[in-house]
Amino acid sequence: KASLGMEEEQEPLLGDRTPGSREWDIIETEEHYKSRWRSIRILYLTMFLSSVGFSIVIMSIWPYLQKIDQTADASFLGWVIASFSLGQMVASPIFGLWSNYRPRKEPLIVSIFISVAANCLYAYVHVPASHNKYYMLIARGLVGFGAGNVAVVRSYIAGATSLQERTSSMANTSACQALGFILGPVFQTCFALIGEKGVTWDVIKLQINMYTAPVLLSAFLGIINIILIFAILREHRVDDSGRQCKNINFEEENTDEVEISQGNVDQVAVVATNILFFVVLFIFALFETIITPLTMDMYAWTQEQAVLYDGIILAALGVEAVVIFLGAKLLSKKIGERAILLGGLIIVWAGFFILLPWGNQFPKIQWEDLHNNSIPNTTFGEIIIGLCKSPREDHNEGSTGCPIEQAWCLYTPVIHLAQFLTSVVLIGIGYPVCNLMSYTLYSKILGPKPQGVYMGWLTASGSGARILGPVFISQVYAHWGPRWAFSLVSGMVVLTIMLLGVVYKRLIAFSVRHGRIQE
């Protein structure tokens, strides 16, 4: 019989099929059950390391870029930051297609090896005599290309879990991803103690300092991940009821083949879910981007205060997301994924609506031209510079407030701190809920067929959103201010809720749609 003492993720495949019952034993042996969940947990780790790979250097890219190549400017930094998402956008459908026809170990190991090699390249970008910034661009793009394995991870987990287990396992996956984004900057902060000089290993020309140590750690963890995938990961696929299926990915013979070819995937639901997911990630990417410029303009925070307070806010959002992911999987059993997704979108809308400026109080105006010590609001790269710069670089730290070159500062009311913090809490609840439910519904809509390509497109749409969101908000905010920016975002969320209303009845599991399982 399958183990009784397992966690919630290993609940019975169907309500009346409890571990030890004859029906359970027919579906799955204890050995297969344990192997399946060992494999899934290895992919939780892969997802965690993938997000750490993105976030572990995000705060140190700008000073490192300036150190290795004096010709690098703000616009080039924008390209370096965006190259990760561009690489992931290109790679996701490729790895997804690969995983549909070959054992999933292959794209996983190749993708992680690419990330390891790219991290090593990043550690050596100071060595060439010229064009160093382009080597950094290539390195970050390749790390993103390796992170395209997110599509393989999610398609594997979708294919290796029954409908009953799906929401729980997807929630755990998303929680691991969120945890990676939280801990990456923490690792970076710890490595800052090494300092800029660090130690040099002359034989192999390797500098170990605050800029290179994080990527070397990422490379080391990647090698461990490859070893674990080789040793533990096995190919598993079950249908929506939990019966084992055969397909091209399997390495061993299985006794219980289930037909999975009957019935077509609802393409309208697939496209709609991709759009929903794009909007959810677009909105959160622009929110992350605008937090620092907004708080400096509205509350006259110095660079040092903004980086500290906004860093705490983003870390708190990450912790909140992990809690929400774990809570959402319990709630979904009672009211279903579609209702939670709708509720999440309404909460996100409320968060942005609350951010609209009201009243007669105006922000403090920064009358001087202070390009050197404020966060310029024209490009994604320049906003990132503001996040990365040390406050000691400020030439006139006393001058704060809303820069006079942003004409809207003179007539747009201030967004009160209580407004801002309420909005942060609401968006922090709504975003993880929408993210998780989009993925979960998508995997259920696709059914037991190989999901690699479809998951690749979903991951690619999310990567595209992370590129476009910051560009959109930085342009609108700089030229028209927060009232226009947040009105447009609120309108976008309303249109998304209307889209969800139109396709609501179509967002059902493949097996439910074809009458094989009761909803």
UniProtKB/TrEMBL annotation:
Annotated Acidic residues bias: 1-11
InterPro entries with a match to the protein in the record: MFS, MFS_dom, MFS_Domain-Containing_Protein, MFS_trans_sf
PROSITE patterns: MFS (PS50850)
Keyword Transmembrane helix set for record: yes
Membrane topology according to the record: Multi-pass membrane protein
Cell compartment(s), UniProt: Endomembrane system
Name of this chain's protein: Major facilitator superfamily domain containing 8
Organism in which the protein naturally occurs: Otolemur garnettii (Small-eared galago)
